[in-house]
């Protein structure tokens, strides 16, 4: 699974893997792909530094990257406490009511919410970048918009390529104009923040919009056949996020959540604003239903919704409250039916890709 881009980057397979877990990111890189560690959950720079040091020690000199979340619209010059104060009381009461209805206990004494999604406040993302630029990362990706010009310049000065996710050709052109090197075309079926255009339609549109910039196809890719499809549509590689959640190296810390993922079908996700205030695909749960309900207060804009639900999510995860327990995940969850090592996943991807190529060659009369 080699393309011009994978050759330039020095990886065996043009398969990029996004994951919040360092052990998974390192395993993806060791398996011949390009592991990208998600930074959003790190609020303390020294924790990120420690995990990046660990990745360096476990990737055998092979390339890997970091993904930060810097929203296009910045939250600047305000403290987290000031942002918290903007959350309406009615929304707080509604969150408390859902938790009470499901008997969700508080966090144990002295345990603080480890699930604060504040990484997308400019100040915190910038702290993460300072750490990242001190480490030998080869790729910096940004989830929500083009990174600011000074960040792109700092990355380029250090020989780091910059990638950004795009949900439409318009986003993609914006990234190109901002000096981004690689555009990730993130389709509707993907886990996490998504636009409204499916990968099958989006990929060739983005390829045409930013030509000759390399494009990675993302969203709904979990088999080698789907990788072949993405490359056939003009992508120079693929970017996978959901598939790694049920690998043996993933540290979900919840057997119940893993079981839910393994049991879920392709129709068991929803694109909801419940998690962050922006549409993000995730497992459909009683929690997402409550926030999406017509008779509820609805969700708040980013970053308020993320702050509103952070502690609740920690409590739900800590106590593994089944009906409310969820995670960002894409429609490919329907194919995530067994726990395997990252290497075993790569072996399957390679086999599926070869099968797809053979099949197309036969159809084209070449074999
Ligand atoms: C659990 C999870 C968390 C994610 N968090 C982020 C994130 O912080 N930053 C980001 O750029 N993308 C994030 N994504 C999206 C992935 O980078 C990737 O684009 C997406 O998962 C690809 O589609 P797929 O889920 O169908 O593989 C997340 C995806 C998942 C499943």
From TrEMBL:
GO MF term set: nitronate monooxygenase activity
Keyword Electron transport appears in the UniProt entry: no
SUPFAM superfamilies named among the record's database cross-references: Inosine monophosphate dehydrogenase (IMPDH)
Keywords, comma-separated and alphabetical: Flavoprotein, FMN, Monooxygenase, Oxidoreductase
Protein's recorded name: Nitronate monooxygenase
